[in-house]
Write a structure and sequence with these properties.
Strand order of the largest sheet: 1-27-26-25-24
Largest sheet: 5 strands, antiparallel
Shape: elongated
Radius of gyration: 27 Å
Number of domains: 2
Strand content: 35-45%
CATH architecture of the largest domain: 7 Propeller
Structural class: mainly beta
Number of helices: 3
CATH topology of the largest domain: Methylamine Dehydrogenase, Chain H
Amino acid sequence: MTIHTMSTLFRYLTHSALWLSLASAAAAQASSPFEGVMPFQPLSSHDTYLLEMDGTISHTWPGTHAPGQAIYLNDAGNLVRTIKTNSFNGGAGGGIQEVADDGTTIWEFIYDDPTHLSHHDIALMPNGNILMIAWEFMTSNDAVDAGRNPNLVAGSTFAADSVIEIAPNGTGGADIVWEWRVWDHIIQDYDADKPNYGAIDQHPELINLNYPPTVPGQGDWNHINSIDYNADLDQILLSSHGQDEIWIIDHSTTTAEAAGHSGGDQGRGGDLLYRWGNPRAYRHGAPSQRKLFGQHDAQWIADGLSGAGDILLFNNGAGRPAGQFSTIDQFTPPLDASGGYSYTAGTAYGPTALSWSYTDPNPNDFYSGFISGCQRLPGGTTLVCSGGQGWFFEVDDAGTLIWEYFTSNTFKIRRYGTCDAPTTYCSTAPNSAGSGALIGSSGSTNISVGDFALSVTDAPANTPGIFYFGTGQASVPFGDGFRCATGTLSRLSVLFTDASGSGIYPLDFTDASSPAGSLSAGDTRYFQFWFRDNAFGGVGYNLSDGLSVTLCN
């Protein structure tokens, strides 16, 4: 980011019931909560609610199904919610809907048939497609035939997980366009006559069919409970409750490649690229090296947020040797320059230590043995849903509680910054082309949308100028006009107006080499256009009015 004083800058061209508790006096000196709205749907409810920061419900989307389990808002502002059509096991879903503000279902996709049932979580992709987790039903005999020890089978059903990608088809439904199956990537060392027989400790890229030894009576072997997508890496992050691990797989594969062991950007097909949390699952490490205990909501921290690129998750703590308490854990995966993960054969995947963790000052006060989630927010704070307690709260980096809300059991929540429209302020001044240059904008101030652009009109034609921005507002005479921004100032690159005296400058918030790349959701900046105007007969330069912009995500 290039920082300038005003003189240097111009010399270059010459954020059960429902109650809210805000921070106590001790927390008053902590970070401020990130302002936004939170859609949520208690497990017992058919309706989805929009929660404001002050604890009020500002909107309700009526429904006819319990959640199945996750809900999100998409870039269009519509609700995308999973629905429960089946009660196979905890987390059962069966479908997904996109719902408009007025409650109209825009499209619906049902994945509930004798061999499949969607469950738990979904991931919204930048291209509008959606990733879904689904059980693939088979029999216990199928599991034994594949090499599971018969003594480790209970009940008649065995369910392995899969991931599907669906694309809304514009006719009220969606189509499956990609698939990955756990069943294509299993290994076992029980039955040497099976083709998947092998040394488990030598193949951490494969999933041990006989781990864990005990599976719930419904046969829910993996119980994957969260999914996240990283568009930059084209990889998928999964949280496997059954194995007490997180897994990363390659999404750049075709469906055929995803069923095998080669292909895709990493050349490994659908095999695991990385796993972490419980090395016993692949016969490495001592019990003391286990890090995860029934975890939920594993996610990459997005660019522009504190800890970007790290993995954040809700570590439920069920069966934790130190006691039953929950934590929010963050760690740095060993990503290499090629998008792969560093690994030393014969060892457990790193890291061995967390990069950040939150534990309640009274650990036993914060515990949810099931469901739950978390989210890193702009400003470095972290939103938590202790689902079994019906407790939403926000903590700062030091672990200070700065916001909370209580309701009933909820799977997880996300907070969305309110995207206010940019507003003009300050005054323009006459220039050689007329009554004054005007600043404007187009696109969304949501940095994840990526289409925001600044504009100027009514400036002199074919004239060099720059958009610049500051951390504060001003309105003081400067040159032949008024300076409208102050504080720490940053300039963008030179723009020449066209023959009509207009210009457009797209902002790329992902470009680290640009001042715009330093901006994050929650930031407010004050923009103005400076331009040369020797023909006016004054000092020789002038400015537009100002534009106040608050970014969100």
